[in-house]
Design goal:
single chain, alpha+beta, Metal Transport, Frataxin, Chain A, 29% helix
Length: 72
């Protein structure tokens, strides 16, 4: 298992979140709020096809409680 974070777009992140039980609960501008039934919540910034910065992706992964391998 590689410790490097993958390069993901917002579309990829949303696909993984949906597959793992997250639902869109709100949006303010380009920022979408996704929540899991367990109460975990993450914010995903929708900026076209630009890759999400590594620090932001790390925060999304940690907040979601998912493994980094889910995003590869």
């Amino acid at each position: 298992m590689s410790r490097h974070f993958p390069v993901c777009t917002a579309e990829t992140v949303i696909r993984v979140l949906r597959r793992n039980g997250f639902a869109l609960v709100g949006q303010s501008g380009s920022h979408q709020k996704w929540r899991h039934t367990s109460g975990r919540q993450v914010i995903v910034a929708m900026h076209g096809r630009k890759p999400i910065p590594i620090g932001t992706l790390k925060s999304i992964i940690e907040g979601s409680g998912l493994d980094v391998e889910e995003f590869r």
